[in-house]
Structure formats: structure tokens, C-alpha cells
User: Fold HMP/thiamine import ATP-binding protein YkoD from Oceanobacillus kimchii.
Amino acid sequence: MNKELLDQPLFKLNNFSFFYNTNQTASINQLSLSIYENEITILMGASGSGKSTLALCLNGLYPEAVEGTTKGTLLYKGKTIADYPRGVINQEVGIVFQDPESQFCMVRVEDELAFVLENLSIPRSEMKRKITNVLQQIGMLEYMNTDIHHLSGGQKQKIALASVLLMEPRYIILDEPTANLDPMSRLEFIELIIAIQKETNIGILVIEHQVDDWEIYAHRLVVLSKESQIQLDEKPKTAFEVHQNVLEKHQIAIPMKYLDNPSTTRKVAHKKTMDVCLEVHHLHYYQKKSAILNEISFSINQGEFMAILGENGAGKSTLLQCLIGLKKYYSGSILFQGKELQDLDRKTLSKHTGFVFQQPEHQFICDTVFDEVAFGMRLNNYSTSEINKRTIPLLRAFRLLDHQWKNPFTLSGGQKRRLSVATMLDETPDLLLFDEPTFGQDAHTTKELMNMILDLQGQGTAIIFVTHDMDLVDTYCERALVINEGRVCFDGSPQSLWNQKELLQDARLREPYRVRECRNRNVVHVR
Ligand SMILES: Nc1ncnc2c1ncn2[C@@H]1O[C@H](COP(=O)(O)OP(=O)(O)OP(=O)(O)O)[C@@H](O)[C@H]1O
Ligand SMILES: Nc1ncnc2c1ncn2[C@@H]1O[C@H](COP(=O)(O)OP(=O)(O)OP(=O)(O)O)[C@@H](O)[C@H]1O
Assistant:
């Protein structure tokens, strides 16, 4: 690609490095890259390759907002970013993060958007019109007066995008923006971005680990190695068709449509035993008088692997929190191995169960990665040599050994997620609950993580797994429980779920790629 001869790049990095002061090695290492306006560029790379750090440097937030230093040059419109007056770049280069909550300052949607306009010194008389226009543009006008906390994940993501659009940016960076969205919201969000790009012709940088729904729209795919060196810079179609070996080497997930035979990857294991692990009877849960969970009943046996599916806001996380005893004020009953959950003390419960939170940060309590993994063992009075014997292999398996003395809060998104899973595997639990454990993970980690889960399933652990990834459900799960508006609307095998088109639509789910492919080839009943 020798585009540079034709156009002046919007961003130009020349041997650019970024060091967090707490780390000995560079998080971005002598990267040279040009990024152009009016293009959609996808940036991929293994977890920890420096993608989010790069996004924050391009937006001018780093190094100022963090203890870090840079080397080499990073030019925006031909001028060093540090030479622009404060705030100019933030306004011209907008970022939407994976977790939109981290971007909000106000309670109501309108106030949040007005706050953005206030910072731009827009007169009050113009605010209403601008807010109405942007909400119309993203299809959220009816939510102008809604409390942001009452919006679903997908809706919050759209409001985060609206805040960025109000700044009329020249460039937008989307850092894993769809990782928390249900399958339909994900598609709608991508379509919205593409429509906006066509209408305004602005440049967009998409950082993602799963690009199945993005790649047809992108002009360019850039792949970084672990050492943040460019390994590939191609049209996505060419990259996925011609360079699969390079992509696999760098742990990049190849969209299913480019794989020879995706159905051979199915690994559903039937390890269910006769021993009941958990029983839920007539569970109801209310939040501020509104019903979040309604009349939920099901049971799961040891060795069973069940996915919980449903649209953003359906009640999946609330259900998991009830099942693990974090939400206590429910009605109905939950029995763990025959005993009422509310009668079990926390220590017994934490010895036999594990819970991986949706936001990994919510479960970190120690100052180092090592201590975080060893925490449960110390609580159970393990000797130092026993702790080392168990902790080191776990850190190695989750590719965290090099980061073991770091503070967990300074890890990359994917590293945090891996740590949150590793902390639950210090023993073989009887019940493991995962709230979206694979989002934000590269292909290699997702595969390893799923294999570890299958291993535990084989040892008799009952697995409950909340996910928005239908391909994962199709590949690994033997049972799916679908929640819609707080009620169970399906409980059965994923294969029978894929045949219920209306139900999938109501719950805003999608068939996995394998099944869509079968349908395209007119195989009517999918097995
Ligand atoms: N503190 C709260 N006050 C009022 N409503 C709340 C509160 N917390 C959650 N809710 C509502 O409860 C419902 C269920 O939320 P929950 O987080 O369980 O959904 P979810 O299925 O896990 O969604 P997602 O897929 O987006 O993670 C949502 O409609 C949400 O708005
Ligand atoms: N605030 C911080 N302080 C110290 N080190 C950090 C900080 N944030 C990130 N790092 C380190 O910098 C490296 C790059 O992190 P970054 O978040 O940019 O990676 P990434 O490619 O976005 O990863 P992922 O795909 O897992 O989100 C990682 O090794 C990470 O541990």
C-alpha cells in the first residue's frame, strides 16, 4: 500500500514508543504507522499488544493523563500531538470505549449530552436542537429523559457514541465497542457506525478481537505483534484469504466464513452426572419495586455445561448474582447441593463455587497479580510451597507469568479478564459461574479458556456461562437457558434453539455462523 504518496496521513507514527512508568518494557515499541482520513481501519493484535494504549495516545489523552513517557514521533495533521493546545485533539478524535459507563458523568441522557455541549461552550439555546438531532441520528430520541442506569448495554453504547458525535469529530476510535452487546444490538451498532461513516465520510479506527461483522466494511486491516510491530497491513479480504498463517501466529480470530469447515470445530461434551448441583425454584427478584427476575425455575447437575443467553438487560447478570449469594433479597428458593443457599456461610460457598464477574475489576482485592491468584489458597492456610506449586502453572496457563508482580488494575483488558478467571481455578470448584468470560480475548486465549472449562466439566464441575457469542454456544454448550424480560423462555439444547426463529428474534439472539451457512445451503433442519 503506498497510499502515503497520494494522501497526507491524518496520523503519522515514526518509531513511536510508549512506556508506562511502572513497567520496564515498552507497551508500544517503535511503531511506524500512517492512518488516513475517510477510511475504516481495523486494528487487531494479541492481548497486551498495546492497542488500547495506542488509542489513548492518538486521542491525546496519553501520556498526559497517566504516568508514562514517549519516544519517537506521533504527528496529527503533520504536527506533534503534544504541540496542540490542551483539549483540541480530544475534540477532533473521539473514543468510544468497551465499557461506556466509564465515560458518563451525569444521570439522565439529556444531561449527559448537554454536559458535552457545555464543555464545547455551545449556547444553551442551541443545545436542545443538537441533542434532538443526534438522538434522532442514533435512533434513541425517545430516551432523552431516561436515567442512563436504566438503559441496556447496547443503548448505553449508543449514548456514548452520541456524546462523541456531538463533538463533530474528524476521526472516531472504537475500542472493542460491541464486546458487551447482545447479537442484534451488535449488528445494529455496526450498521449505525457504517451509516454515519457514509454520511459524514469521517475516518474510523476499530479495535476488535472478533471482526466477523465488521470486516466487509473496512478498507484496511492492521495486525500488531505482541511487541507492537506491524505484521500485516492489507485489505481485510486479502488478509483473511491469503495470510491465515500469519494471523494464526499472532492469535487473531479468523472470521468463520474464511475457514474451510467451521462445523468440525464443534466440541460439545456430554459429561452430565446424576448428582444435582443447583436447583432454582420460583425465583423472583425485584429492584426498586420493578420485577427483574420472574418465576425462574431450573436445575443443573454436576458436569453439565449450560449457557445463559438473552438480550442486554434481560436479567442474566442479576440471575448469576442470586445464584452465587451476592443478591440475597429474592423470593423462591435456591438449593446448592441440596442445602438452601441462604443458610450456607460465605467460606463454604467460596470453597465450592467460583464466580467470574462481568467487570473483572470488581473482583480484584490484592496489590499484585500473584497475590490475587494465591488469595484463596492463603485463606485456606496452604503452605508457601503449595501456593507456589499451584499459582505458577495457573499464571503460565493464562499467560500472566511475565506480569505476576504488576498491580492487577494496570493490566490490559484481556489480561484482567484472564486473571479474573485464573483466580477462580485455585481449586476444582463444584460450580463455576462465568459472566461473559471470553469478551475482549484474542483467539488463542478464548480457545485455551474454553478447553480449561471443558476440562473442569470433565472433572464434574457444573458450568453456567453467560455469553453473547452464539458461535461459542454452538461449539461448546450442551444446554441453553434463554431469559427474556426476566423470565425463562427456553431451556433445551442449542441445536433445538437454533430452529426457533421467532424465539431467537424476540430474545434478540442470532443463529451461529454454522447454522446460517447450513440455511444458506438450504439444509432446513439444523442438527
Ligand atoms: N440498580 C438498579 N436499579 C434499577 N434497575 C436496575 C438496576 N440494576 C439493574 N437494573 C435493571 O435490571 C435489568 C437486568 O439487568 P442485568 O444486568 O441483570 O441484565 P443482563 O441480562 O445481564 O444485561 P447485559 O447483557 O447488558 O449485561 C435491566 O433492565 C437493568 O436496567
Ligand atoms: N495503566 C497501566 N499501567 C501500567 N501498565 C499498563 C497500563 N495499561 C496497560 N498496561 C500494560 O501495557 C501493555 C499494553 O496494554 P494495552 O491495554 O494497550 O493492550 P491491548 O492490546 O489493548 O490488550 P487487550 O487486547 O487485552 O485489551 C500490557 O502489557 C499492559 O499490561
Q: What stands out?
A: Residues 20, 22-23, 27, 45, 47-53, 66, 403, 410-415, 440 surround adenosine-5'-triphosphate (ligand 2) (CB under 6 Å). The mean pLDDT is 89. The first strand starts at residue 11 and ends at 20.
